[in-house]
Every structure is written in C-alpha cells, then in structure tokens.
Design a protein that fits this description.
The structure is a homodimer of 407-residue chains.
Chain A (H helix, E strand, L loop, with lengths): L1 E5 L6 H10 L3 E6 L2 H9 L10 H12 L3 E5 L6 H11 L3 E4 L6 H4 L3 H25 L4 E7 L11 E2 L4 E6 L5 E6 L8 H20 L3 E6 L1 E3 L25 H10 L4 E4 L5 E6 H13 L9 E5 L2 E4 H12 L3 E4 L12 E2 L2 H5 L13 H10 L37
Parallel strand pairs in A: 1-2, 1-4, 2-3, 4-5, 5-9, 6-16, 9-13, 10-12, 11-15
Antiparallel strand pairs in A: 7-8, 12-14
Helix pairs in contact in A: 1-9, 4-6, 6-7, 8-10, 8-12
Chain lengths: 407, 407
C-alpha cells in the first residue's frame, strides 16, 4: 500500500512510519517538524538524542534498503501543498497523526491554546478535504484520544463509537437515536480532538469517506523493534511537565533518586498502551477492511486502565523509590469509575497487548540509565496549572507566557 | 448594563446594538468589519445601502442622544486587544455575534471553509478565555444556529439543551446520561457552530461561566424599530446565492418578475424568525437571570417551522409570482419531520413572535421596491454546490475559488 503518514517525525509517527515501511508499505512522511521547534522554544529536550529527519531516513535506508520519502509541509496552513502531494503520491491510505499533542501545552496561554485548537482542527480539516476533493476511496486512519470522554464517574462501559439511546420528549413520545456518549474534554487539547471527531463525522456522513478513528490511551515506552536498530533511529523520550507522560516521569524520578510525584490522590484512572502496540494497532487498522456504514469506525486503542497511584506503586516497588503526593496542578476528578470497551481490536486478533506488568519497564530504565547525564530535573515540576482555582487577572496579561509559535 | 456586542456591525449585530442601546444599556461594538470586506470580495452588495460604522453611530447619537462605542478588533486573531477592551470597559455581559455566518460561503473553497472554521471557533475561544481570565461573572450570550442538528427525519421534539437518555452497555448494564441529541451539521459553517457548543460546554463546566446559547432559525425581514429611524441606520438586505436567505431571495425574484426558485422538492423544513424578534429575544436572554447549573442554557430562538415550499407559496400568492423548482445545489434531505422545542422563550414571556402570515412581508416588499435599481439578478443563481455528487478533481485545483480572506 502507498501510505502518507502526517506527523511522521513525531513520537508516535516516527515508529509508525518505520513499522509500516518494514511491513512492505511505501511510506511518505508529511511533517512540519513542529515538535522539534516546540521543544527548542520550551527548552525541554527529549532524553534520547533525536537525529534530523534526513539522517533518520538515510540510516533506515542504509540498514534495510527501504526508502521513506519526506515532505516538509504544514498540513494545517498549507492546503495547496498537501493537495499537491496527495494528487502526485496517490496514497491508498493516510495515517493522520499531525497534531499538537500535549494537554498542558494547550493550557499554557491564549496563544498555545488557540494554536492547539486551530492547528489540530485545521490539519484534520485539510486532510479530509484533500481526500474528498482528490479520491474518496483513500482510507483515513486518525489517531484520536481516549481523553475526549473526560473523567466523570461512570458506572457503565463506554462503547466504541455509536450506540442506541432511548429518550422521552416533551410530549411524552419515546424515541431511539444513535450517537456516542457525550464528550467532556478537560483540556483544550482534548477539546481539539473532540472537535476533530465532528469533522470526521461530517466527511463520513456527507461524502461516504472510509474513516477509522483510534481513541488512544496514554502511551508508555520509547523504542519499537525498528527504532532499536540504531541510535540514529531512536524515538523521543519526554519526561518534562509539558510533554512527558506519567510513566516516563516516574522512572526518571526513581532513577535520579527524586521521590515519584503523584498529582493529588492518584486515584485518577487512565488508559495506557505501549508504543510497540501503538504501531501494531495502527497497522491493524490500516489493513482492516470494514464495510463502510457512513459512520466513522471508532476503536479504543488501549491495553489496560489503571489508577495513577498503581502505576506509581509499580515503579516504586521495582526501582525501590519513594512516592510523594503533590498538589494536583489540574483541577480534575481524582476518584472515578472508568470502564472502556475494547472489543474491536480483540476481534481483529490483537489479544496480546502489553501491560505494565510485562517487564517492559526494563527498557525504559535502560533508556534512562544510558542518558542519566542529560536529565534536567528542573523540567519535571508542574508549572502549568488549570481549572477553576487557577489565578485570574484583573489587568491585561502582558506577562502571560508568550510563545513564538511554529506553523 | 454595560454590554459588548461582538459582530455589532453585522446583520443581526447592528440592530441588536441599537435595540440594547435604546433599552438603556451602555454598548461597545467590537467588530473587524469583515462582512463588509467579504461583500466587496464577492461583489455581492446589500440591496440597501450600508453606511460606514462611524456614520451609523453618529446618526444614532444625533437622533437619540445615545452613545455607542466602537472598536475595530479581529476577535478571532487578536486576543490581546480583546482582553484589553474587556478589562477596560468592564462589561456585565458580552453578546457574541462575531462569526462568518453563511453556509454556502463555508462550502466555496478550502480557504473559505478553513476561514469559517478557524474564525468562528477562535473568536468564541478568545471571548470565553477573556471572560475566564478577567471576570467569570460576565454573562455570555452567544448566537448559535438551529442548523447544528441537521435535517434527518426526526419524529420527536428536539429538546432545548440536555435531556436524559437511557442506554444499555456491552455487559447489559442499563445506564442514564444527560446530553444533547447528536448534532449532524451539513455545512462547514454549521459544523463551526457545533464546535462552538463544545467550547461553551468546556468553559461552563470547567470554570462555571454563565452562558446562554441561542440556537437561531433563519432570519427574515430587514429593519427593526430602531434601524427604520433613518436611512443611515439601515440594516443589510442580502439576497445573493451566498448570504441571501430564502425569503429575501423569493421577494426579490417576485418583484423582478423572475420565477421564485425553489431548491429541489422544497419539502425541506426550516425554522424562521423575524429580525425584530431576534433583537427582542437577545434582549430577553441578556436580562434573564438563570441559576447557574454548570450547563450552558440552550434556547431555541425561532418563531415557527415551515417548509421552503410553503414560504414560496406564500410569497407567490401575495405577489402573484411563479414558482420554479431547480436542481438543489445542496445534497440534503428534502422531506423530513422536524419538531423543535421552544418552551424557554415562552416561559420568559415571549409569546408574541411574528410569523410569516403577519403582513410583515409588506416591509420587505417596500425595501425591495425602493431599491429595484440596485438589484443584480446575476447574484441569485446558486453557483456553490456541495454534497456527494459535487465534482471531484484529479489534479491540483489551482482554479479553485481563491479569496483574499479578511481577518
């Protein structure tokens, strides 16, 4: 298959590109390298060294003989170039991963929030429009977020996609309708992902596009079978307050002799998946042939749910570290039921996803150990706060964090 | 009350500003005059002559002694200036009307679609953020669109806001949740409005903002009690294929001796409201004191629903004109049940809204008669087409409509 991977230089995109290339697909990466510019602006660098995209691609070719093409295009702002690439490369499938993916980043300032909203929504809009205009048979696989549902206490299993609901109207007429459960995103990033779902529905329903939306959990792990082949192919390892995810941070803290910092009670439940399974699931979704129903095919891309506390306990025990509860910088529900359906990937044969108990922590420890000298302890403490009690301003905020935004 | 009206130079915004000023409120219009620039770019001008915003405001002051302030700010792209204005003017309420409001405009090209999406979503985002950052007690009244629901055949009454639904999960557990019926917008414009609803929910739920969202029907009529006072205060009258609404177009056609053109069967049902009632409803919403529930207060701002055909019949009979069914440029459901709850405005005492039978057509006929010499027949025929059967391209579309976008 000919596949365009947008965001193919990023944390999920790079290993996905290699994995799909290795599986025999013809890959074109489309990326504006925004993750690299944001890292520079924030001065929060990946623990692992990230080689330039040209070096990465050259090394992949040297090691495997496989070619990956690359186009530097800002998918959100440059529709013409995107359409040029789609019409000339003629992909069978577009894996759309191009997005600003950090919730804390989206809550830093007006600029970072609006950048996240417009960048993510317009990138998806342009990709959908390019498919609609050029060839409606191109399959679209979008990487969404399981965080769109929010974290209310829910006693039922959240379905994958639409389900039937019964209501009673003002005239006591009973009716049935099909829809997803209401989203309740708790950051502008997650809001942008929920807005993309309405774009996907729009193009699916009005133009019959073939769309799979993967609602992914928090990704842990760093390397995949392919990125391990050479240091030049290494994937990102983010552990800072903005882009770092919870497990990375815990392991860095444990390895550096700092107590593991749990935000609030730690009874927040989250869904997780290992990066190796991310690339396998995306491959499975790319290959899956689902009868087009006019509905987006929503799949929960997760291996398990766990409380943050249980993740901390797991790391603390394995690495003999202390745990410290700190004031939660996010105003969020710290105790709630959270049950997610995950039948669809099972039905496609993905029954062997890795869980935290599977010794894969060794790999993270190795990564951290190898790069101990690069650890910047100052970047771990949470400085971005959000929610009702976050400070308001009575005067114009010239001092609000200003970012020279990419894109 | 001190009230900021964003989009206060537009078709709904200008008469709203005058009406609220006349009612004794202190009005600040914030507008980037984008509707005027788009009219120039499209070469589709209002049938009535529109005076400059400064002349409008000066004439209002001359006639009534009342002052209206004006700031030229692009609310979607200039958050700093918006926040400056909010912190210095210290409004009690913001009536947020600033948006690109034409569905056909949003479907013209990639540029016009993305402009509509980003302009409308970011304008709402900035207004919400300014309230959240400066003073969470500022009431927000947003003018939404009843079109967000789409036009599926629905046998039940669509509720105003959230309602209770019952579902059964994968483990046969029965559960109840509260939400709105799923939106099914059929244009990028309506999609942008549905995306604004998720922004409103986000700020309402996470920061407790006091938000009323008015889901408005198609507006007819031109003048209100205040805009009638002088030609310099005249409101817009759009009848072109992009911004013109169905009733205006019908009257212009009938008056010019052209057959009234009905898109398709004409059994499409739509909701309507007269511009005089728009400004009264907005005033009522501004004054209403609803206990904050954490939910956005959704109100259907409509006076009646009718099929397009029945509107055409009404005009044809009154004006002795012919009707011609033309190929529908929009792929849409041309026959469907469409029942909208509208209890909330009734409960607030608005039981005397005008319907099409109320002789108000005279006013439109007068407007059209007075400006017969300005009618541009070429602008009526629909040229923007959308839906599954709209032409696709096999090569990059350099010829796609290019617009020098405002803002």
């Amino acid at each position: 298959m000919k596949i365009i991977v947008t965001g193919g230089d990023g944390f999920c995109g790079w290993p996905t590109s290699l994995h799909l290339s290795n599986a025999g697909h013809d890959i074109l990466i489309v990326d504006n390298l925004s993750r690299r510019s944001i890292a520079k602006t924030l001065s929060y660098e990946s623990l692992t060294e990230i080689h330039s995209i040209s070096k990465r691609i050259a090394k992949w070719h040297e090691l495997t003989g496989l070619k990956i093409a690359f186009k530097n295009i800002d998918v959100a702002s440059d529709y013409e170039s995107l359409l040029d690439v789609v019409t000339s490369f003629k992909p069978d499938c577009i894996v759309h991963l191009a997005a600003q993916r950090s919730a804390p980043y989206s809550m830093m300032s007006a600029q970072s929030g609006n950048y996240t909203l417009s960048n993510n929504v317009l990138a998806a809009s342009n990709v959908l429009r390019a498919i609609e205009r050029h060839n409606r048979d191109i399959k679209l696989v979008h990487l969404g977020s399981i965080g769109v549902y929010g974290y209310e206490d829910r006693a039922f299993e959240i379905p994958e996609g639409k389900t039937a609901f019964t209501g009673i109207d003002h005239n006591n007429e009973c009716y049935t309708l099909h829809g997803q459960i209401p989203f309740n995103p708790t950051s502008i990033y997650h809001l942008s992902k929920s807005q993309i779902t309405s774009l996907l529905n729009f193009y699916s329903q009005n133009y019959g596009l073939d769309i799979t939306d993967l609602y992914q959990g928090i990704v842990w792990g760093t390397q995949t079978a392919e990125t391990k082949l050479s240091a030049a192919l290494s994937n990102r390892f983010d552990y800072d307050e903005i882009y770092g995810t919870v497990l990375n941070r815990f392991v860095v803290q444990a390895q550096s002799g700092i107590p593991i910092s749990v935000y609030g009670k730690g009874e927040q439940t989250r869904a997780f998946i290992h990066i190796q399974d991310t690339v396998r699931c995306i491959e499975t979704a790319v290959n899956a042939r689902v009868a087009r129903s006019g509905d987006v095919d929503v799949m929960h891309q997760i291996s398990e749910t766990r409380t943050v506390k249980s993740v901390a306990d797991h790391v603390a025990k394995l690495m003999n570290a202390d745990i410290k509860h700190i004031v939660n910088p996010r105003e969020e529900n710290e105790e709630h039921r959270y049950i997610l359906a995950s039948q669809k990937f099972s039905q496609l044969g993905m029954n062997d996803l890795n869980t935290l108990g599977d010794n894969l922590l060794d790999e993270i420890q190795n990564v951290v150990n190898k790069h101990l000298y690069r650890i910047d302890r100052a970047c771990i403490e949470p400085k971005v706060k959000w929610g009702k009690s976050a400070k308001q301003v009575s005067e114009p905020v010239k001092s609000e964090v200003e970012l020279s935004l990419v894109g």
